[in-house]
Amino acid sequence: MTDHSLDLVGFGVRLAPAHPDDAIEAWPLTDADLWRGMTTPWPTTVDEYAERVDQQRATPGMFAFTVRDAETGEVRGSTTFYDHVPAQGRVEIGTTWYGRPFQGGRTNPAAKMLLLTQAFETWGVNRVALRCDARNDRSARAIQRLGGVPEGRLRRHRIAADGTVGDTLYFSILREEWPRVRAGLEARLAG
Predict the structure, then answer these.
(1) What count of other Cβ atoms lies within 10 Å of the Cβ of residue 108?
(2) What does each C-alpha distance from 148 to 64, 140, 141 come to in angstroms?
(3) Residue 91 in contact with residue 125, Cβ under 8 Å?
């Protein structure tokens, strides 16, 4: 089981280790439309959301976070590191969602700055991957705006919660690209 003590703070957000108790605050920010494109079904109750967090915490190589406002503690959403393979110097960032009031602002770039800094500067990985359902234009644009480089499309790669089969778009940021990506995120966060 992964150690869930990793707590990242900066740029106005706190990525706190996800806990099932967070469901009371997090679940009301979700809805079926917001969840579209995820491979897991939308948790239709607080208890289902808490069970999802338990599953994340039990998954080897996954670090699940509840994204909070650093000052008030208000829940904004959730994100994870997963498929962390230290021997290969790689990790993925994903299963990210934010409540509608926090989309399109500073929350995502702040959270990604913390995650990418942890990955490249603390863990020393060579590669961070990000992916999304090819039908999720909003996520694909957000990943590219962060600095993710498109790598390709895996055809019929994911089965959505509604049973439809879709393609997955893959993006990555490599260690040598990190200084450029970091500068871009710093500029966005300073604006």
Answers:
(1) 24
(2) 21, 9, 9
(3) yes
Question: Is 112 inside a domain boundary?
Answer: yes
DSSP letter for 136, please.
-
Return d(Cα 144, Cα 15) in angstroms, integer: 22
Sorted by sequence, the CB contacts under 8 Å of residue 110 that are 6+ apart come out as 10, 11, 12, 13, 189
Residue 172 lies in a domain: yes
Q: Which domain holds residue 37?
A: 8-190
* 8-state DSSP, 170: E
Q: Nearest Cα to 94, choosing from 104, 110, 108?
A: 108
> Is 52 a member of any domain?
yes
Phi first, then psi, for residue 24 (nearest 5°) are -60, -40
Q: What is the CATH number of the domain that holds 19?
A: 3.40.630.30
pLDDT tens digits along 92-118:
999 999 999 999 899 999 999 999 999
Nearest by Cα to 169 from 139, 132, 118, 130: 132
Overall domain count for the chain = 1
Asked if residue 42 belongs to a domain, the reply is: yes
C-alpha 46 chain-centroid distance: 20
Tens digits of per-residue pLDDT, 145-170? 999 999 999 999 988 878 889 999 99
The C-alpha atoms of residue 164 and residue 63 are separated, in whole angstroms, by 27
Q: Are 75 and 22 in contact (CB under 8 A)?
A: yes
